[in-house]
């Protein structure tokens, strides 16, 4: 099996390719981003502080000057604390997909109470949310948790529009998490609409879907910017966690993104069993690239099966009312991918020059431009 000369991505990773020296295209993408953003250097830090000054200017005389999406996880909890450090006045925004664990809810409360930050929450009707999750399961596609990402993005924009806030801070770090390969991680509002229309039973009313029109409205008319501090400044998850535990009595949930039951099911059962994708290789590869972990140690951890909570599969089946027989059939059945369903992908590609300009002005993330606006070569596993 071919494996990258630097990280632990191997040839089973979707869309992977290796250069003559054996380096994978994802390592190269991260090198390019890090050179472009001067990540974790004095220059990167300086650029970030200039952005902070601009956020303050744009938010002058308003109740809040920026939005931070919160999940109770490490990155977003830490981001809120940093925003206060920088002298910003954040509004915390949460999309509740109704699958949260108690730890996540408590973490959000602890951090926001101590920092005296207001919270804006969108709670979706749980039957509707479950109907959408169920539709993705029956559609045989990997992005079962994708609707949550889109709903969160739409909720952030709605809150920003309501309070006339121009900036959204995102906790993503390509250094800490890498850039997830596209083949099994595509999602847009059109994809959700198409899958739900085909497999859903409950009408979509409270689910905050981001249609193409809304996406253009938020970016072109409202011009709400998305900025990612950890693309500029250094960020280390382990020390962030330590800080949160000490400062807020915040609780670690024992694994990447396991603060939500759907995310836990997705990472520990659905992806590895049905799609033979183990997303731990994203953060493990990132740890190797940044020198936080040796390649041997990463491969050793990766070889162990992911931890599965006892309750997670029965909970999933019960909530989504999926019979044992259906569950087995789908888990071992055919795999489908986003290019087999209607999506906005071709529109994004056609409008690539426009999205390039939007990315340059931080109106869409640069990673959106790089991943969504270029044709994806199907055929890669
Ligand atoms: Zn690599």
Q: Could you describe the 3D structure shown?
A:
The chain has a single domain (59-280, 299-372), classed as Rossmann fold (3-Layer(aba) Sandwich). The protein has 381 residues and is mostly helical. The radius of gyration is 20 Å and the shape is globular. The protein contains 18 helices and five strands. The protein has helices at residues 25-37, 42-58, 74-85, 102-115, 126-138, 146-162, 174-177, 189-199, 212-221, 237-248, 261-275, 280-289, 295-303, 312-319, 324-331, 345-350, 352-360, 366-372; strands at residues 66-69, 90-96, 119-123, 167-169, 225-227. Helix 3 packs across helix 10, helix 5 crosses helix 8 (189-199) and helix 17 runs antiparallel to helix 18 (366-372). The model has no long low-confidence stretch (mean pLDDT 93). The structure holds zinc ion (ZN). The site of zinc ion has 7 residues, from helix 1.
Keywords:
binds zinc ion, mainly alpha, 51% helix, Rossmann fold, 18 helices, 381 residues
